[in-house]
Amino acid sequence: MFSAGRLCVKTAGREAGKHCVIVKKIDEKFVMVTGPREVTNVRRRKCNIHHLEPLMIKIDIKPDASDEEIIKVYEKEKIYEKLGIEKPKPKPKKEEKPKETKPEKKKGKEPAKKAKEKEAKPEKENAEKKTEAKKPEEKSAKPKTQEKKKK
Known about the structure:
alpha+beta; SH3 type barrels
């Protein structure tokens, strides 16, 4: 009953309720199953036969068939329609972008942002700072001994 090509439903574990196909029989209690992952999100793994519910559908695959081969057989035998599974979308090929090189930092100079910030400050603020520095100090509550030393 549990031979290569038998479609099953997983009944236990995180993949419970998902369809899979037996890829090969390992021993009396265990089989290797796959979804394939792109189709039913069942990854290729060892599974106990007590955690599988076999279906009446059997596909013609060789033992240890790859996921790509299984997907081709699914399309050929119209398994997607029989089980009500969506076909996997083809993966778009990634375009290689040339890596942009970062400009080298020059030592000794300020970064451009800081230089712009200094230029952007209003002249009024700079003028106020200068006038504050020129103002004579007001008398404070300092001991007389210190005042005499200053004179």
